[in-house]
Design brief:
Number of domains: 1
Number of strands: 2
Number of helices: 16
Strand content: under 5%
Largest sheet: 2 strands, antiparallel
Radius of gyration: 22 Å
Strand order of the largest sheet: 1-2
Length: 403
């Protein structure tokens, strides 16, 4: 909203109003605003939840310090979502398709998570929202995102300039196309066209190609969203590692949306996506502000309202930025947590069938609980996971040049 006000002021030559034309300036303001809202609003939300006696119900897992978390206010994801939406509405271009999709995704996933938390807290049903309804919500969102990529005239790409070495610049400028191309890390000719790949293996029907692509998008959103949900098990773990992952994605989104940087780095240029940097800045500010209260010892938990939302948003940003194949690196913590559960459950079932008694690889899954049972203090586990996340984030960014 403020963007349009200052655009008008710039048109009538008000000094300084032109600063709002710069994405970097608006992203900085957005981050600061989000941080202030999260810190101020977080305190108010904690007080409200305490008055309503909305607290975490802790299951007996035999973990040290577990019962000290009993009764800690939950559903803190509400403040994360508000700290994203309000600054984005203030500083972003609201007619931008990427901003519209991200706002829709944030609200939609927030509603799903809120219903889940509401059932757990108010209905006293520990199971929460049935898994099939969560998946259904993620399916609907995946359909919307994939349909936008396939059909929206505003979502186009300009292929890697390396593919146009002998083409005049004026022709390259006009080469924005609808495409299902994505980026392959560590490969010199680093673009993969899903449509061409499916045609090469004999799938010619375009609607079947669209369907397969939609299933792929749904799989990524559901997988990353649930990975974030599994990661949210220690004070500050999900918020801290997600903020690091977002910082990496911010670099990719900014350079992909800047024609000069994209041509210099010889990467795919994505018109209009640079505006999503403003959204990511709000998201980072919201998570860092939430950490003010969620760091050990936590005064509030994000609940599924937050964890399902942050994972889904990470996935959608990566998909729209054509960096979803980098998610195993960018969101490597989510992946490790998810794989630890899959490996643990699969091995337990296999050994139970074979030996009549289930055996375990990890002391407990998800992975952070394994380290808890090794008597490593919770703050140290979180700090080390964040350090690993920083390593993975830097590794993902340098793939811009390593091919």
């Amino acid at each position: 909203m403020l963007y349009y006000l200052f655009k008008y002021l710039n048109d009538i030559d008000v000094p300084g109003a032109g600063l709002f034309n710069f994405i970097s300036f608006r992203a900085g303001l957005t981050l600061l605003t989000s941080l202030i809202i999260a810190i101020w609003g977080g305190k108010k939300l904690i007080e409200l939840l305490q008055r309503l006696q909305i607290g975490e119900v802790v299951r007996d897992l035999g973990l040290e310090g577990q019962y000290s978390k009993q009764g800690t206010p939950t559903m803190g994801g509400i403040i994360i979502i508000l700290s994203i939406i309000v600054p984005v509405l203030l500083f972003a271009k609201l007619d931008n398709i990427y901003i519209q999709l991200m706002l829709l995704a944030t609200i939609w996933l927030g509603i799903i998570g809120f219903i889940d938390d509401y059932i757990k807290v108010f209905k006293k049903n520990k199971a929460g929202l049935h898994g099939k309804f969560k998946i259904l919500g993620q399916v609907v969102l995946g359909i919307v995102v994939s349909a936008a990529i396939i059909f929206s005239k505003q979502i186009v790409i300009r292929p890697n300039p390396e593919q146009h070495q002998n083409v005049p610049n004026e022709q390259i400028i006009k080469s924005d196309v609808k495409s299902m191309k994505t980026t392959i890390p560590f490969v010199k000719s680093h673009e993969l066209d899903y449509e061409a790949l499916l045609k090469d293996i004999g799938i010619k029907n375009k609607w079947l190609i669209y369907l397969i692509f939609t299933f792929w998008v749904i799989f990524i959103i559901a997988g990353v969203s649930n990975g974030a949900n599994l990661t949210d098990g220690l004070d500050g773990l999900a918020a801290g590692t997600t903020a690091v992952a977002l910082s990496s994605l911010a670099v990719f989104v900014y350079v992909s949306g800047n024609v000069i940087l994209a041509e210099y780095l010889k990467i795919m240029y994505i018109p209009r996506i640079g505006e999503m940097t403003v959204f990511i800045a709000a998201f980072i500010g919201a998570l860092v502000g939430f950490l003010w209260y969620n760091a050990y010892p936590a005064q509030i938990f994000m609940g599924d309202t937050g964890s399902l939302t942050i994972g889904g948003i990470i996935a959608i940003i990566a998909i729209l930025a054509r960096k979803e194949l980098l998610l195993p690196i960018i969101a490597g913590i989510y992946l490790a947590e998810t794989l630890s559960v899959i490996i643990q459950v699969s091995y337990f079932k296999y050994t139970k069938r074979k030996y009549g008694e289930g055996r375990r690889i990890f002391l407990m899954s998800p992975l952070h609980h394994h380290f808890q049972l090794k008597n490593i203090p919770e703050p140290k586990i979180v700090a080390r996971f964040i350090i690993v996340a920083i390593f993975l984030g830097v590794l993902s960014v340098i793939t811009l040049k390593i091919r």
